[in-house]
Amino acid sequence: MFTVLLGAALPLIDFFIVNVALPTIGRDLAAGTAVLELVVAGYGVSYAVLLVLGGRLGDMFGRRRLFIAGMAAFGITSLACGLAPDAWSLVGARVAQGVAAALMLPQVLATIQAATHGPRRARAMGLYGATAGLSMVAGQILGGVLVAADIAGSGWRAVFLVNVPVVIAGLLLAVRAVPETRSQRPAPIDVPGTLLLATALLTLLAPLTEGRAAGWPVWTWVALAVFPFAAWAFYRVERNADRRGRTPLVPPSLFRLLSLRRGLVMIVPFSIGFSGFMFVIAVALQEGAGLGPVPAGLALVPMAVVFFATSLAGPRLIARYGTRVVTAGGLIQGVGVALLALATWRDWPDLGVLSLMPGAAVAGMGQALQLPVLFRIILSEVPSDRAGVGSGVMITTQQSALALGVATLGSLFLGLTPGLGMRDALVVTLLAQLGGVALTVLLSLRLPRTVA
Fold first, then answer.
1. Given this structure, which CATH class describes domain 2-180+249-444?
2. For residue 410, with 0-12 CB atoms within 10 Å meaning exposed, 13-18 middle and 19 or more buried, which class applies?
């Protein structure tokens, strides 16, 4: 478990670790806003596009083998990021790093699904959810610490180079500890489905994540116009393959599982709000409140600490109260976001750990009561032989929503700042996130009352 959870933490940490490093990267590499957003978007889009394929490859060739290969590739591409001589080299290395993450991460959940049962699986899924949530917050904190520490004059490069020794340790552990599992009925690669899914995700995520910084050129509108047609074509191809007894990349029959379908719908607004908040707060604290990378990262420590502590109690609460824990978590998170908005309105620009602590801690508690439970709900009814596909679909949904959060809430905040000022723009963005939290609360009422 420690080894596979290490593999789960690395890609999520690296999605968020660059947020506080972007200003330093821009100065050092003379990179404009559009290129800097590609440093984030290139990783997130390639990661999201290939996750389902990564899960299928694990089902076919063995999850342990793909986990080790993906982790090794993640270490090599992290080294390439840390040694990048210019901005475009960094963008290319980040895209490759996203590909490596897409090979590694689906094997984590698929291995847990295939190698555990009953109470052990429930505990393992709880640990995975806790690791995922904590990694997303810890990544931003770690990024600030590493940039400020400037280890051996490495500056921002340390946020990537730190992965290399961790990957080496992870590989040594994986060779000894991770069991080999694979689908009993491996299916061939669904080439049309893979290409259409990649087209659909690219035409949605690429223009939304890069459009604002690039000034919304023609290609962004063309891509968005193509998206619904690509998505419809993907659905038709997969449905026809399913009806003919083939094994499509994403079997539509998988969505007949009530727990998977309703859990996926709920994880979208949750992840959009989570990543949007993390991006916006990093920009606001550094460029608006004038905090350095370390204070900007430390402002999120209360959220991380409370998230971890609450997630440890999650399994007992679920056993007693069922999925109503998710509803309670949404309500608590809403209170936390409201407290953050109030602190911003009252204390700006003197924001710091103390003024943000109540809201961050309460929001972290609410998030910890939702994310681990949602992961467990989504995969609770997925058969073991479809574990790779099921985990790939879930992580793709989450990762796509994380990218959308940066694109939507980030664009809202940056678009409002010139006219309203950074304080009011941040408050409006937090209120928009509060609307997303209200949606998750309503959606949680439709979840199955119990979870296996």
1. mainly alpha
2. buried
Residue whose pair of structure tokens reads 């949404």 in the numeric block: 330
> What confidence tens digit (pLDDT) does each residue in 215-270 have?
888 999 999 999 999 999 999 998 898 888 777 888 888 888 888 888 899 999 99
Cβ-based burial of 92 (10 A; exposed 0-12, middle 13-18, buried ≥19): middle
217 sits in the region (left: phi over 0; alpha: psi -120 to 50; else beta) called: beta
Least Cα distance to 282 among 294, 271, 270, 297 occurs for 297
- Among 301, 294, 299, which residue's Cα sits nearest to residue 149? 294
pLDDT one-digit tens code per residue, 24-82? 888 888 887 778 778 887 888 888 888 888 888 888 888 899 999 999 999 999 999 99
Contact 138, 306 (CB under 8 A): no
Rg (Cα) of the chain, in Å, rounded? 21
Spatial CB neighbours of 64, under 8 Å, sequence gap ≥ 6: 107, 111, 174, 178, 179, 180, 181
Give all strands (DSSP E) within 218-354, no chain letters. none
Query: Quick one: pLDDT at residue 451?
Result: 66
Question: The pTM is what?
Answer: 0.83
How is the chain split into domains, by residue range? 2-180+249-444, 190-248
Q: CA torsion 353→357→359→360, rounded to 10°?
A: 80
- Copy the structure tokens of residue 206: 């690429």
